[in-house]
Fold each of these.
Amino acid sequence: MSVWRFAPLGEAAWMARCELPDLALANRFAHALARALEASPAFEVLLGLRSVTVRFDPLSIEPESALVALQRICDQLEPAPEVVGHVHRVPVRYGGEAGPDLESAAQALGLTPAQLIALHTSQPWRVLMLGFAPGFAYLGPLPAVLHLPRRATPRPRVPAGSVAIAGGLTGIYPSELPGGWHLIGRTELTLFDAHREPPTWLQPGDAVLFVAL
Amino acid sequence: MLRVLEGGALATVQDRGRRGYQRFGVPQSGAVDAVAHAIANRLVGNPPEAASIEITWGGAVFEVLEPCVFAVTGADLGARLAGATVPLWTSVYARVGQRLAFLQRVRGGRAYLALAGGVDVPVVLGSRSTYLPGQFGGVEGRALRPGDYVRVAAPPRDLARWAARRWASPPTYTNVLRVLLCGDWDRAALAQPRQVGASSNRIGLRLEGVPLRAPTQSVDSFGVFPGVIQLPPDGQPIVLLADAQPTGGYPVLGVVIQADLHLAAQLLPGDTVWLMPVTRDEALDALREQRAWLASPIEEDDAFLSLAHVRA
């Protein structure tokens, strides 16, 4: 039985989505598929949390042929290793001006701020994907005890370096951006530099261990 | 070389965009209307990877500091060279001291100004395209402004040879975008006209009208690209354009067919637009037709050409 579901995105793309309920495992399958497709010049690959969007030229390869090729690759996939890259230590100043939502987030979770920090720093989180903005890494998945919906009202400006949680994930804002996640701390690290190759400090498949300052 | 006298509403350096950096969260960027940009490059003899200037709405004014050959394609923004109407979809020889002005929007929304030899700005992450939100690419990651210089990367030695070349069959810009739907939607609501919202930009067209009922369940973020139509909870669709982020979490209403993406590029706030569902076969036929049209030869106007030589 296949764990993959395929949906067309127009005439020039397919989305392959891993249907396994466990996000961590589904994400490792998505990484494996992205890696398997990277070598193919006919496909442009966009990694999602539990999916891969595959773009192609429908006049060079018919959509149905692209789908068959994709299905064949998916059928033979093993999940990518849990962590294939570096484990980065990220020092974070939690709470106060650096993390204005620490107290409200802890309260909503039924935790003390200290407990929230202890849980957030308790283990490395996997870089599931980068998206939303250059260098924004989606980290996780977080345990259920740290699951919070997004803030009802997004902030128009979240400062660069803000460490945040929402939707069972944690992330670091690489630059000043609008954002709806709960801000619990801040790091001084530079996550994105367009003039470096690669431009991001974190790569999909790396892991991040937050360290409280 | 040109000097920017006025930047107008928005003028940025763009090329075909960035490929292969989406995994770092970097948008594709590049010319929103890739078709008009590509033809502008062809008219002046540039390779496909050359950069041009994308001019939105109008208001941009340039002073010619060195003889050059340029072509304006895409929108009719009332281009004038030394006061005379510039023929669109045609390469033109410009002399030192002449002013090239884009007066106002007549038809379409984005014009492409290509210079023989290509626009010279540093390559950032594999492209010369300006990405305004990230403040990188193009001229210091920003729009052109008075006092900027637009340098030519590799001016051709036989400059005048590239003048007076014409694209015989310019596209007709319509307000109908053909769409391949993703899933079942209320066709009656979908058939209603929509207005391009004021906050629309290079990232996306925000379409305002009869709200479509958006599915309530959230979607795990997945890879998206220009042409994808997102449906946020307010039921007002967003057509993603060149600067769209490479992932999104909103449900997808559908995707603008490849052949019509350049039409979406020519729409600006206040315009009315219709989304028209089509089949995949229709999308592929339209793309085949567009590719054949793009491969058609450039016309060389001999009378015009000799005049260009005299001027050179």
Amino acid sequence: MTGSTLRLAWRNLWRNRRRTTLAVTAIGLSVVLVLAYDSVLRAYGDWMTETVTGPMLGHVQVHAPEWRKDRSMDRTLRDVTATLSALRRDPEVTDATARVYAPALAAVGEEGFAVVVVGVDPAAETHPMGLLAGAPALPAGRSVLVGRLLAEQMGLRVGDSLAVVGQGADGSLANDLYRVAGLVDTSVDFVNRQGVLMALGEAQTLFAMGDEAHELVVRGRDPARAGELASHLSALPALRGLEVLDWRTLSPEMVGLIELVGVAWLFVLVLVLVAAAAGVANTMLMSTHERTHELGMLLALGARPGRIVRMVVVEALMLGLVGALAGTGVGVALVAATHRTGVDYAALTGGGPQELSFGGLRWSLRLYPTLAVEDVLRVVAAVGLTSLVAAAWPAARVARLQPSKALRG
Amino acid sequence: MSDVILSARGVTKIFRQGRIEVPALRGVDLEVRTGEFLALVGPSGSGKTTFLNLAGALDVPTGGELLVFGKRIADLSRAARAELRLRELGFVFQAYNLVPVLTALENVEFVLELQGVGGERRERARAVLDELGLGELADRRPAELSGGQQQRVAVARAVAARPRLVLADEPTANLDGENAEILMHLMRDLRDRHGMTFVFSTHDPRVVAHAVRVVTLVDGRVARDQEKPGEAPHEILPGVGKAEAAGHLGP
């Protein structure tokens, strides 16, 4: 393509400034919409992945065989301290921690409530991806944190005493009295509704578990490569005979949801492409129709039809790309402006709940729109390709022009 | 005797408007030789523009035989006709027909680019404009030029590619008397100095006065063919050929 073709196409594009500006605006607004929608979907998708692989599942989990089926107290992992040491030494592992899950009855006063005691290592769970991220400190000794919804249901306040009664791993009676050190709000729904969190050592003592746990939560460098990490870890001698599963296998319904969000942008993209195609095709058809005489003159001068077609196609491509770039500028600025503060969808929809509960997770209605470079490139490329397709109609008309007829008008 | 560059024998052209056939040319016999300065005259609808379109390979005849530079127009493909127009023919249209988004220089350059002229394109285009006294207007767009200036730029564009035959359809129709005179002098000067052949249609008696040969078309046929005595092309342009023309219109 010669520089003169580009120059001529660019100048032709702006011959009718109002029409071109309208088309560019329509395409640009469509791109803004798709980028805004993309940014919300990406925020949802990233947040879901972070939530699922963060406080809830980690990247890989290790359990005793069959534990996931019945969550029986006695299906435990043994020699947890040594196993965790082996895991933490592995170069592929960035973090590993153990948890205890024990169904129990908790009582304040005379009324009892069904709860799940979760024994956690506070030092390993307070990082941003941990179960105790943002939670009050969990002191050593007989202190517990209680899920906020459970506390509201029980009428518990910080400082109250809570009696916990359950069954030990060895079948013995487990019971003790704990002080409520704080209330927790996590993105894991059952912890908020049923969770009584205590230090791992305290839980192991209460439920007669010694150096045992029900679950090891392991994190690697990249959640997308959790499958490889699980395969790698299952070959370690310390984990031989145990169930080692990545988060995708553990929560296929969440994976399905994340993937659904990942492809939802396609629907909006199709709408945008239709708008872009209509804008480009309409503008180029009108433009070439108005210039029929001039195009006939160019043919008369000896321009090959291919040259004229190329000029029209380049014009269409420029129109689409100018619209896409203008829309990208506005869209990226909009996303950048809302990324820091987030968008409160509850307020936008006239109030209502700030969170939704689904799939064992709490979904915040305040989202932090975010875009990846690939999102922008994808939209710009799609508009560019659509413009080329939309140029086919006017280009085909131009290709069929007979110079003598075109010169007549 | 000069070479015959255009030969029409019994050329007909019929346009179809639905089921109706409209004959525009009913059998034109005409020969044009190198270096001629020929005016096609006749009333509206006599077939002047149709004949110029056929001679310019913009259209193909319905019947008869039309040879341009020895090539049978009816036998040429669309691409071959485009190539013939590009290499051998120049056009000047009634309504200036410059590309409005290009400057005068760029309009001239465009034809050279179509011809595949490379690095010296701009210099050659500027040289043509300078030769026609349009150097100062090189960077102006058509909207910034008067009608007469635009038509002179159109002539510059038509001759920049060194065509052997320039076809002009009513080139002075939109010009006042003074500008029509300037344009005719310009075209005739180009013909005298470069040996280019000019065939132009016109209604204007002042323009006809500049012609060396006047062919009158009536109802799609040649009704009269007059050559001014003593001004036959081979006598006016002894020894002037394309090689010499190339030397005048740039490197």
